[in-house]
Amino acid sequence: MFTKPFHITLAISLTVLVVTSCSLLILSDKEIWYTLSLGVISSGIVFFVAQLLIEKYIYNRIRILFNKVLNITYEKRELKLLEDPFELFNSRIDSYLEKEEEKNQMLSIQQRFRREYIGNIAHELKTPIFTIQGYISTLLDGGLYDEGINIKYLKRADRGVDRILDLLEDLDLITKLDSGEFPLEIETFDILQLTREVFDSQELKAKERSITLSFLGYPKKQIFVDADRKRIFQVLSNLVVNAIKYGKDNGRVTLDFNILSEDHLLIEIIDTGIGIYSEDLVRIFERFYRVDKSGGRKLGGSGLGLSIVKHIVEAHGQTLNVNSVKDKGSTFSFTLKLA
User: In this structure, are 156 and 261 located in the same domain?
Assistant: First the structure.
């Protein structure tokens, strides 16, 4: 089978030459020369004309038709329209509806979070404000001249003001951390010395519960890290305060330091407290989330401590984890870059 126009035109030209050659057998010498010249010229003309016509009108059209058939088959396979011409249309509608549903769910979650967040802020502010108002009202109603209560109520009102200020400072800090407008001041310092300073600052709170603050084993005299010293002090302080607050009387809060590699140090805060249920662990770092919902506010705090801890650790490019067993205690751990 001839597959190209050249083969077809060549066959036609050879046919013309054969016919011409056969005619030479019955002609004279002069007629032979004339016939031969005419045959060669005719064969050439026939060759080029046939080549042009077949290329332009037959072969090209066959090629275009063949390509269209291939393209149509390919497009049908790609669009999966061989069996159902409306399948693509339906799938696109379904995909669009799924995306819209996801957007609506995300908006609903954001709105619910916003309502809860504002409600929690209002509650956290309202509680100390009402307490302060009660003490001040008592003092204004004559208690100011009662030496048995005046100083005591003024001190309690002052603690209420401190609680409001702490909450506002935490809100301001977490807002800056969220927006990325809180640059870290990285420096090299001894993490063991910083931990001793945290222990000193929380010593009185620990003694009130007969809780022991200590290191696990005998750590090196010095371990230097690169981090924001002020913020890591806040991280350790928040975690130790939580361990004391939710600890058991006569319990322990222990800090352990393990060098994971040449670059990273693992810090663990281990307590023997009330522990955390597994269903609460996934939400423990959410703002205002409290494990002990009944007594959490009585124990004080803004409800933002662990959320701030998570933000500061992640701002350092490090990780924070928690493991806990109910009624046995919890272990909070995070990493820092070694100097």
Answer: no
Give the length of the chain: 339
Give 258's strand partners. 266
- Cα(251)–Cα(209) distance, rounded to whole angstroms? 8
- The structure's pTM equals 0.59
**β partners of residue 265:** 259, 336
Choose one of 55, 79, 103: the last residue of a domain.
Answer: 79
Tell me the two tokens of residue 314. 């992640």
**What is the per-residue DSSP string for 284-336?**
TTSTT--SSTTTTTTT---S-HHHHHHHHHHHTT--EEEEEETTTEEEEEEEE
The CA distance from 27 to 21, in Å, is 10
User: Is residue 184 a contact partner of residue 159, using CB atoms and an 8 Å limit?
Assistant: no
- What sign does the CA torsion over 158, 161, 165, 171 have? positive
Q: Compute the half-sphere exposure of residue 130: CA atoms within 13 Å on the CB side of its CA.
A: 6
Taking only the tens place, the pLDDT of each residue in 253-271 is 999 999 988 899 999 999 9
Give the 3-state DSSP-derived string for 143-206, with helices as H, strands as E and coil as C: HHHCCCCHHHHHHHHHHHHHHHHHHHHHHHHHHHHHHCCCCCCEEEEEHHHHHHHHHHHCHHHH
Q: Give Cα separations from 11 to 4, 28, 165 (angstroms).
A: 11, 28, 102
Domain's final residue, options 33, 57, 79: 79
pLDDT for 271-314, tens place per residue? 999 988 888 888 888 877 766 655 444 555 567 888 889 989 99
Alpha-carbon gap, residue 329 to 305, rounded angstroms: 18
CATH of the domain at 329: 3.30.565.10
| 206 and 261 in a common domain | yes
CB 148 within 8 A of CB 154: no
* Residue 2 banded pLDDT, cuts 50, 70, 90: very low
